[in-house]
Each structure stands twice: as C-alpha cells, then as structure tokens.
Specification:
2 copies of one chain form a homodimer. Chain A is an alpha+beta fold. Chain A is about 20% helix and about 25% strand. Chains A, B: Its EC number is 2.7.7.12.
C-alpha cells in the first residue's frame, strides 16, 4: 500500500455523521450514520478492512512472473457521434473475488456467514465506496492527456480518469429504497449531495451522476438496495443535448428551458402527478419510456448540493411517494394466474445535475425516474429504431402515465413504514 | 375499401420479378420473385387477400355505436433533447387479430393449418408489406402540419406521417437470413434498394431505414425470418449526429468523414475483418457494443439504390459471411453443461443510408451490425449510464472483437448452403 489510510470524522446535517476511511486496496469508503448511537466509526467499531487485498494500483504480475504497471482505463472518441466511449482496455488487480452467492454489500456482522464483503464495519446506515472494478478511474501518475489511436487524428484517446462509486442505501439486504424510513431517505439525499460536492472538486471531473438501477430486467444481479455515482471526465451525451437545447432556448426566448418547461406543465396541469411545497412531479409532455416521471424543485437549483434545508426535507416525502407508486403502477389482470401478486417495478432513477463547470445557469436539477416495463411481464426492448437510429417510439402517452400515477400515488409517508 | 387495389408487374434486376398488390385493408404488398417459374403474381396464383379486413382508414365504431374518423398517429417534440417521439395516441381498426401461435408471415399454402396470414399467395420468395399496426403512417386527408400541445410553444406536435413495412426474407419459417442462398440474399438487397427508392419518393419522408432485429433477447417474438423498413418523417437522432460530425469534419479538413474513417481503418488494418472487391468490413475504432462490425462500400455511395450491379453482386457474399460469423462468434466453454450447443447471435443489423434530401454528399452508406450478447448467456443491459445519460461503457475492445471475427469468418459461401 502506498496510500495512507485516511480517516476523517465530520458532522453534516443535524442527523448525519460522516466518517471516511479506506479499504485495504486503497479505495475510499465513507459512512453516513443517521442515528445515535452512531453506528460506524466509533472507537469500538472496526474501521479497518482486514481483507488481504493488494493495493489496487500495484504492479500486475503476469503469468511470466514479470511485474508490470497497471494499465489505466482508456476512452476513445467516437468520431461518428462525437461521444467518448470508456473501454475495458485495462487490467486491474483482480486477485480477490467474492463467492458468487455472497452479498458483498452486507455489513461484516459478527457470526455472519460471509465476512469478506466491501464494508468492514459490523453495521452501517448508508455507506459509499469506490467501485472495485471501475470503468472510470484516475490512476496515479498517469497524465490526463489526449493521444491518438494508431496515430490517426480521427481517433483521439484519453485516460478514462473519472470515478465510479457504489452507495448502499440500507444495511437490510432484502429492503428497497422505496421502503426505507423518511429519516434514512434524508441520509441518502445528504450522501448524494456530499458526494456530488466531493467529486465535483476532483480534477478532471466534468459531471456527477447519482442514479439507481433496480431490477433483474435491467441486469441488476446484486439485490442489496444500492445505487451508483459516476463522475465523468466529459459531458455525457444527454447532458450535452439538454445544454444545447437550453442555450438555444435562452437565445430565442431569454428564458431558462427547464424552468419554462416546469411552468408550462404547471399551467397545463394535465400531466402533474404530485406537488409539495418545494417540488413538482410531472410526466413530461414527450415522455419516451412506458413509465416516466420527472421531479423538479420549484426554485432554480443547479444540483443536489445547492438544495437548502427545506428543499431537502421536503424531497424525502415526495420521492418516497413516487418510488412507492412505482410498485403499484402495474397489476396482473383479474383472472390471470398471477392475480394479486405484487409487481416490483424495475426502474432507473437518474438525477440530472448541472455539470461542474459548464451550463450552471442553463441546466437545472431534476430527477428522471423511468422503467422499461410496459405491461405485466412485458418489456419495452430497445431494438433497431432505438438502438440503431436513436429514434424512440412510445407505445403509450404521457397523459395515460400521469393518470395511472395519480391513481396509485400514496397520500403520504409515515416515519416507520 | 376506398382505395383501388393496384397491381403492377415489373422486372427489376436480371433475376428478380416485382409484383405489387394490396391487402384487403388497403395496405400495399410487393412480391420480389427470384426464380422461374416466378412464384407469385402469375395468373393462376392468388393475388387478392380473401380476409374480411375492414379498410384500415375506415371510421372506427365505438362502444356507443357511433362511427368516428381514425385518429392519425402523432409525434411530439421532446424539447429537452430536440428529438421527435412518435406516440401511440391513435386507435386504428384492430378487429382482426391472428391467433397467438399462428405465423402471419407464412404463405397461404393449400392445406396449411393457418390460412389467415398477411401473405395471400400460396408461396413467395421475398415479400414486403406495410405493417398492420404502424407507429408511423400517413392517414389520408390529415395535413402534415405542426400544432402545439396544450397551446404551448414548447411542445410542437405533428402527425407521425411516415411508413413502417415488414420484409419477409424467405418463406421458410424456421430459416434465417444468415442461411438463405446467395441468390435469395441478392433478392433481399434488390427489395431493400427498391423500397428505399419508393419510400424516398413519398411526400414528407426524410429518411429510409432498412434493418433486421433478430433474437428473443431483443424482444423479437415472431421467429419467421424478417426485417423491417421504416420511413421516418424526420431525421433520426443518430443520423443527425453523424451529419453534424460529417459537416464539421468537412469544414475542418475538406474530407468526407465516412470515407476518411474507411481509409484510416484500411491504413491501420488492425480492425479490418474482411475485404472484397467492392466492400470492407471492419470493427470501428470506438465500437460501443459487445459485438459490432461495420460494412462499407469502397466507392462513395449515399444509399442502397445507388449501388451498381457489381457492388450489389459482391455484397451478397460478404454480408452472408458476416452473418454466419455472428452465429459462430460465441461458444460455450469446455466443461459447461451447454458445451457444443450452437449460440444463435441475437443482433440488430442496421443500414445507415444518407437522408432523402439533406447530407447526401456528407453521409455515406454503411451497415452497422451489432449485438447485446457479451458472453454466452450474458447480455449487456442499457442501464443508468446508457439509458439515463446516453453514456456508453464498453466491456471489451474493438481489437478483441475484430480478432474473434477473423477467427470465425467463413472463407466463402456456396450457392446451396
């Protein structure tokens, strides 16, 4: 190990205590504890990672016994689309792999069957750590410089020098974010905001993306409730598109695109699903997914760290209500062999934040929550038109989606759910 | 029926006879026959559709017994991305539905169990017809005018006045395009070129897209070998991106982007998979899919109709070889319970053609053939980064894909395969 384990303890919001440490291979791990006695980081708890993980940037010893420096992950510029594509050209240390049926996100509880997970402490509330097998990672000593594949000007390459992190929402492996308590949801929001702030300060990071993939239908194999945080060293295609549209809108009208969209949705009202003091949930007028809802603050806010105390407190309830409505969105038809069985919605929950440097006046924080489930047991597949041409076709209408959300949206959430 | 069935017979290439007719509901259907005695359209064969299908643009009679005009499908402008989204706001006549286990693409062979398929004749070689449930269709009498949803300037709407067609590659329901004879593949190429020409002449059509989706992994439920042809009334996002990149490249270098990419791939040679007299197959330098190969003509050609006789004849063999290589690309590992079982590659085969009006000097015909299969039994899912941010991450490298293609590419194809 050439990095010193650094441990920091700091109080965030009234109810959240933050404790930072490092895993055995040098990755950063941060606990966000929300209840006294604070679970993690106390002197009596295990902070250090006992696993024999080699330092992740240590030289890789090949089959020939020769040690070679770790290769940094690369991205290539796709000249046909103008997009960067990170590629698995690198080979990190992969000597340690957990057993396939183990849950690496479980706390290291005494007596538990699996003691080699990612979280060294015996319990936690919310925890964030760097992904063990990252597609984006800055390797120390590798300069962030553009080169050319095969010496061709058409094919720039760059180190994929970003960060990918995992956030565990709850220690309960069979829970879900929809079912955490409001207090725990508030901790998750604090963790997202805190990580966004920290990652925005990392040199080379252009954009921070907090998101959750849920459900085997979108390839999630680890069912412990968790999300991910990507810090991209470039502007993503969707953000680039939205920024281009927002700038064009400002030049044409003088207005802010996302604020004007929100105001138009409020004027129409036809697709508004829920309103709270500080937030509005609506199905966008041109929603492309079979289930899609956006959640935006009433105030102009570029990103999660910019939310004030009242907005954060108010977000808890409306976000939980939207997630819980998702699990009531579809029902098996009467007479079907599955009648009455719950349908857990597979979904992607995507926090669109303004980039770190560009477009902070033009882009505005909003959540895009969507699903590929179009009916019980039926998925929307992204086939030729979507994947080949990027041309979406919707099988439903935003108005139908909004009507269904209004039917199934719970009125409120209780502290103990 | 208010449209007259029109029947036209015309010889295309040396070996293809074209016969156009209409189905009972007014949809156009065209046979492309490649062998004497020509199968379809002879005086002794059945050209007319005997099914009691109502005219597809006839008024819809509601549950209340009142007849109302068919609603034309709409698209909405997604102001956040600048993309048009066709939506299923319309309700076409859907009184006739084939039984779930029937194959509607089988010819109406005498004595066959299912006589209510889409193809009236008792046999065919290749056949193209309008999709019965189209997401894009021009409804007679509906003007192609922009309106505004809820009266808001932010939300333009337009009729989704394009065309979607189905192409059956072969009458054998258990076959595949990879396994047709070279003569049949040539007929398919002629049909694509002929439909591209015809659809390019339809008022309002901006772009014609010939493609094939294959495999249940991408949602294909009908296994009869078939593809689709979409005629979009707008430029698709991928084409818009490529055109933007090509124009910028021309301004910067004076060159044609797609030609320069081809020449750079030939100079490097590292990712070239196959070459023939008139075509080059290569894995692009920034390929984003687990399996991806592009096939481009050596000559500058905007679209399939612009291919000359030698290029069409030469395309047959190299395209068949690529498709057959796909079905040998993955193998179950030794010792696995599936060892030795063939792995049929799920794929999307996408013909990128220059748009009808714009960019015909800048864009250049090429095929993009790709798969979401990343290993035996393992799919690449488009989760948060791809679906939320449009940001692809590749788990492999273009060089590995090219190496594998070179291992499994057959040397040639025989007339009887």
């Amino acid at each position: 190990m050439s990095e010193d384990p650094a441990t920091a303890v700091r109080l965030l919001a009234p109810t959240v205590r933050k404790t930072t440490t490092r895993l055995a291979d040098g990755r950063e791990l941060t606990y966000y504890d929300d209840s006294e006695p604070y679970l993690s980081g106390a002197a009596t708890r295990r902070l250090d990672d006992p696993r024999p993980l080699p330092y992740r940037f240590a030289d890789v010893v090949g089959d020939d016994g020769v040690a070679r420096p770790v290769t940094a992950p690369q991205m290539r510029y796709d000249v046909l689309t103008g997009e960067w594509i990170p590629m698995a050209t690198h080979r990190m240390n992969r000597t340690f792999l957990p057993p396939a049926d183990a849950n690496p996100f479980a706390p290291a509880r005494p007596g538990a069957a699996y003691q080699d997970g990612e979280i060294p402490d015996t319990d936690y509330d919310v925890v964030v750590f760097e992904n063990r097998f990252p597609s984006l990672v800055a390797v120390p000593g590798v300069p962030d410089e553009v080169a050319s594949l095969d010496g061709e000007a058409l094919w720039p390459t760059r180190p994929a020098a970003g960060r990918t992190e995992v956030i565990c929402f709850d220690p309960n492996p069979t829970g879900s974010l929809a079912q955490v308590t409001p207090r725990r949801m508030r901790t998750v929001i604090e963790a997202w905001a805190d990580r966004t702030l920290a990652l925005s300060a990392v040199p080379g990071v252009e954009q921070v993306f907090c998101f959750e993939n849920r459900g085997k239908e979108i390839g999630v194999t680890l069912h412990h409730p968790h999300g991910q945080i990507y810090a991209y060293p470039y502007l993503t295609p969707r953000t680039t598109q939205m920024l281009r549209q927002a700038v064009a809108h400002r030049h044409r009208t003088g207005g802010n695109l996302l604020r004007d969209v929100l105001e138009a949705e409020l004027r129409s009202g036809r697709r508004v699903v829920a309103e709270s003091d500080h937030w509005v949930a609506y199905v966008p007028a041109a929603a492309r997914w079979p289930v899609e809802v956006h959640l935006a603050p009433r105030r102009d806010v570029p990103d999660l760290p910019a939310l004030d105390e009242a907005e954060r407190a108010d977000l808890v309830g409306i976000y939980l209500r939207l997630l819980r409505a998702g699990d009531r969105f579809f029902a098996w038809p009467a007479g079907s062999e599955h009648e009455g069985e719950p349908i857990t919605l597979p979904y992607i929950s995507a926090w669109h934040q303004a980039p770190v440097r560009e477009g902070r006046e033009d882009l505005r924080l909003h959540l895009q929550l969507f699903s590929i489930l179009r009916a019980p047991g039926k998925l929307k597949y992204l086939a030729g038109s979507e994947s080949g041409m990027g041309a979406w076709v919707s099988d439903t209408t935003p108005e139908r989606i909004a009507d269904r959300y209004r039917q199934v949206l719970p009125a409120g959430v209780e502290e103990r759910s």
